[in-house]
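Tutorial handout. Part one gives the primary structure; part two gives the three-dimensional structure as tokens.
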Amino acid sequence: MADLQDAFKGETTASAKYAAYSKKAEQEGNHNIALLFAAASKAEKVHANNHKSVIVELGGAVPNITPEFTVKTTGENLQDAIEGESYEVTTMYPDFLQDAANSKTQLAQISFNYAFEVEKKHQTMYRNALLALNNNTVNELPNVYYICPTCGNTYDQTPSERCGISMTGSEKFIKINSL
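Part two.
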């Protein structure tokens, strides 16, 4: 339960933070990075809602949180996002998945796995965006994203017929191509 509550807090904060980072990127003229942050914000919200549903299903208390973060330059925000996703991919979700497996809590395993698989994609997308920002090629980044409403899977190109993580039909995906 503590893992689910921590994951809910982290994903709720990430969603709010990335929404704010999106606004900053747009203000700085980095529209395609703003779209990436907007898409990731939506995906993190899916993760938070999944974790919340499992908490409720298991009879736990959903934490009441107020996200705290600082918005800096787009480059600094991308670096912060890379660090956050890296922590989730290398430490947080692997540990949470092991705990859920040990306790035989299948719903937690599913929710954690959805987030874990998507965070790996976000980490790569943020690294590519920082590289583009540093190389002055931001306009070459994708300008449309698709988000799976079941697991938060984030596509930066036209998705296949079904989500590669949850098998949700792509007709249900949320398209992000404007702010």
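Part three, for discussion. The chain has a mean pLDDT of 97. The beta strands are 145-147, 154-155, 174-176.
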